[in-house]
Amino acid sequence: MVVGLLYRLIYSMRPLHAGQDNEFRAVQHAKRIIVIGSPGSGKTFLAKRLSMWTHLPYISLDDLYWGPEWKRSTDKQFLKQLGEVLQREEWIIEGNYHERYFTERLQRADTIIVMDVSTLEAITGVITRSLNRFLFSKELPKGVKEEAVRIWDISPRFVRFVLGFRRRIRPKIWPLIMQYGNQRNLIILKSKYRSCPWTAPDRRSSP
């Protein structure tokens, strides 16, 4: 956590080079953004701050999927809610769920941000998030925010999923990302801290 804060401080103080400045302008003028990547890659942190500074509505797929007391929604319920969101003219949708309306999300988005971080950075992010949930009841899906302290939620199965994301999940979604990315603003971030210059105070877009 301390290392992460240092990285954010260092990156936020660095000036944008030409490529980053073009990416920032694309995001600043976007209307429909999706943020995807491995669990722990920094999707939520980035999407929430972009929502604050672009004034686009923030939509978390976890909020649509998880209900009170961590009850899962049915596929029918989830797809109905997601389908309704996709019909709106403005949003930032954050989350994977690559087997549910993934192509439709890519088709509707005008900007695609991929958090293509290393496995080490992703698993570190997962551990940090779980500590926040377990100790402080933070970073919980909206439906369970008022629940009692979250149980420790890193299961062996979930760890295997994160460790194998780049090897198993990434090859499945990458061809679609490239296909639609050629027709849209495609931004690939190799580290969650790479976006820090965008979210520096002097980079906030005006209301």
TrEMBL record:
This is Adenylate kinase family enzyme. InterPro entries: Cytidylate_Kinase-2, P-loop_NTPase. One of its GO terms (molecular function) is kinase activity. Signal peptide: none annotated. Keywords: Kinase, Transferase.
